[in-house]
């Protein structure tokens, strides 16, 4: 059994000068709106323009794009060494101030023609906001028939699991799209809603994983929005 594990972390919207962090009640659940407001306090204290919620989410998704690029660039190394891997990539900043996104990948060759996968994306903000979305499963692949050179996917089982810290609760949906005999895609969507307090916006996470009859697994979409 060969196991491939990679973790790529990218810091979101950072600055080089670290001022004092605005106080908040220890252990008090924070919303994304509160996270944006507290980060903007720091930006204003430095004479910088505050961020809109849309801008903040845009920075999160830019970080996810960079994480995916790093994940793909390192893939051949992961396969060559066949062990556990952890790669951290800072982007102009500090996770204690503006949070981070994480992409975690795990692939296991269970047997010849059978592979399992687990892909996770996370947003972790410095005041305590945390959203996770996991896309996992197992698929089989190989020659269409004993006398054929055509390789196809023969079957797949999958699961999508969204998680969040309070005050958010998480739910999820998933579906399998058979794009061709050789390419299937598992689409995962998470929904993050405030479960109590002054209810704000509902946020969504997307994690789409493509399965290939060659045994490869790739992420087609990874993002958060509202």
Task: List the SSEs and their pairings.
Elements: E1 2-11, H1 32-45, H2 53-73, H3 75-81, E2 87-89, H4 95-98, E3 100-111, E4 114-124, E5 130-143, E6 151-164, E7 168-178, E8 183-194, E9 203-212, E10 217-225
Parallel strand pairs: 1-2
Antiparallel strand pairs: 1-3, 3-4, 4-5, 5-6, 7-8, 8-9, 9-10
Please characterize this protein's 3D structure:
- The chain has 226 residues and is an alpha+beta fold.
- It has one domain.
- Helices cover 20% and strands 47% of the residues.
- The chain contains four helices and ten strands.
- The chain has helices at 32-45, 53-73, 75-81, 95-98, and strands spanning 2-11, 87-89, 100-111, 114-124, 130-143, 151-164, 168-178, 183-194, 203-212, 217-225.
- The chain has a six-stranded mixed β-sheet, with helices on one face. It has a four-stranded antiparallel β-sheet with strand order 7-8-9-10.
- A hairpin with a 7-residue loop joins β5 and β6.
- It is elongated and about 70 Å long.
- The termini are far apart.
- The relative contact order is 0.18.
């Amino acid at each position: 059994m060969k196991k491939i594990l990679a973790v790529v972390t990218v810091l979101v919207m950072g600055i080089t000068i670290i001022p004092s962090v605005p106080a908040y009640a220890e252990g008090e659940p924070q919303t994304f709106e509160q996270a944006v407001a507290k980060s903007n306090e720091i930006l204003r204290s430095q004479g910088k323009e505050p961020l809109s919620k849309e801008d903040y989410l845009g920075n999160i998704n830019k970080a996810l794009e960079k994480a995916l690029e790093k994940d793909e660039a390192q893939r051949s190394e992961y396969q060559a060494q066949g062990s556990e891997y952890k790669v951290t990539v800072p982007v102009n900043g500090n996770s204690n101030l503006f949070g981070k996104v994480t992409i975690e990948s795990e692939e296991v060759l269970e047997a010849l023609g059978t592979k399992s996968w687990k892909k996770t994306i996370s947003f972790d903000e410095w005041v305590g906001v945390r959203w996770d979305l996991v896309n996992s499963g197992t698929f089989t692949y190989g020659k269409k028939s004993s006398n054929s050179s055509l390789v196809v996917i023969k079957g797949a089982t999958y699961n999508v699991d969204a998680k969040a810290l309070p005050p958010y609760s998480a739910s999820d949906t998933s579906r399998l799209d058979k794009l061709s005999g050789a390419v299937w895609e598992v689409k995962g969507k998470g929904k993050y809603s405030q479960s109590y307090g002054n209810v704000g916006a509902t946020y969504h996470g997307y994690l789409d994983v493509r399965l290939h009859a060659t045994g490869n697994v790739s992420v087609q979409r990874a993002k958060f929005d509202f």
